[in-house]
Each structure stands twice: as C-alpha cells, then as structure tokens.
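idk why but the lab printer keeps eating my pages so im just putting this in chat instead. protein + iron/sulfur cluster:
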Amino acid sequence: MMEMLEAITEGKGKEEDIDKLYRLGEMIKRHPSAPGSDRPEPRSSTIRYFRDEYVAHITEKKCPSKVCKPLITFRVDEEKCNGCQACRLKCPVEAIEGSKKETHKVIQEKCIKCGTCYEACRFDAILVE
Ligand code: SF4
Ligand code: SF4
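predcted complex ->
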C-alpha cells in the first residue's frame, strides 16, 4: 500500500491502484491482526471521499491540494510581479533570477519546491500550479 501511495504522490500511479488500495484497506479492516491494521480506515475513507484527488494525481499528474512536491510547480505571475526581490533574496538555492523592479523568474531546474518564495511575496505574484 505504501509503495502504491508513494507512486501516486510522485505522479507514477496507475488507475487500477485506487481500487486496489481501497480493497486492501477494507480487507485489512476485517482482519485486525494483519500488518497495518492499526490505521487502514483513513486510507479507505480518503478514497471514498476524495477519489477525484487520487484520479487527478494519476491521470493529470496534478496535486489539487498542492501538497505533493513532485507534482507542483512554482512560477512567477508576470502580471503581478513588481520586482521587489523579496523572493529572490529568500530563496535558499538561488532558483529565482531578476533585477530590481523587473519581472522575476523561477529557474525550474534549481527549484527544490520549498515554498519560501510563496511565503515571501506580498503581492500574490508567486503561483503554485
Ligand atoms: S516577491 Fe513577488 S513581487 Fe517581489 S520579485 Fe518576487 S514574485 Fe515579484
Ligand atoms: S519554491 Fe523554494 S526553491 Fe523554489 S523558487 Fe521558491 S524559494 Fe526557491
């Protein structure tokens, strides 16, 4: 189950994994001595209530909740960026380039998706997609 869940969060899941996970969760619930039987319910219930989220991870390679790092991208909104440089100065890996008062840009190859720029920007100019 863990391997399937990890694959899904990395955009490598398969559609059939959703039903497999659900069935495994339900099966474990019925066998209290099985490994993992201490917490099977959250897995079954997340599939029951948030199936769309699982599907989005698998078919669109998107994390609607913007939590799974492999599936999200940080980008600067060119319309809103005023070049204040707050994001660039706080980025821990120098993944943002741009001069003062000019539109900045995230260098995707360097970005470790820490979210610091999103927190730093006071102009809602960092998009998480
Ligand atoms: S903090 Fe926001 S407004 Fe300032 S440079 Fe970065 S993206 Fe642009
Ligand atoms: S998410 Fe983190 S690493 Fe990526 S550009 Fe923003 S501050 Fe830099």
